Prior knowledge:
CATH superfamily of the largest domain: Toll/interleukin-1 receptor homology (TIR) domain
Low-confidence stretches: 1-11, 70-80, 122-127
Mean pLDDT: 77
CATH class of the largest domain: Alpha Beta
Amino acid sequence: MNDQAEYYNEEDEAIEAYCVRCKDTIEIENPKAVWTRRGIPATKGECPDCGGTVFRMGRTALHSGESRPAAVQVATNTRTKLAQDTAYINFTEADSEIAEQLADDLQKAGIAIWLHDNGSEDVHWAGGVHPALSECSRMVYVLSPQALYSESVEAAWKFFKGKGKRIVIAQLAPVDPPDAIRRSPRFDLAADYRSAFRQMIQALSQ
Length: 206
């Protein structure tokens, strides 16, 4: 047994997360300390009820002794370009936990993804937009009340809309999308995650 597991067992600390499939807060099974692409600590594990992958953003006891990795650099000219069929997941920081879970499920389904960088509003990118926005050919817009008021999220989908790129909507709450993209395919993850996710995969693959 590794030191991380021993520390967790000794503390006997229950780590909870919200499962979008079960629409309930659950105690994470097999929790593991992980870090997001931007170097943010999180905990990844399984839902004991549906068996799906769940995430909890933020540091927990499992991160004790773990070193934070450097955030991924995305603005250099020497970095490898993203594959053209990469899906850009557009979300607000308040929905990070669910966005990370959706990203994990999409990757398992064989779809390359890029997570929206909510910390880049003050960065002056060459060409005026984040490089990933130019390189990705499709977008998953994570729709929630918070997303409707996020300037960076709005700027991202407007760029995609202006370029005629495909946008699909992953709906987390009963709110209407912006008028400009209201005709985009919409999938209600809160009502039935598995069914909506399967339909979303089909829409992204068209």
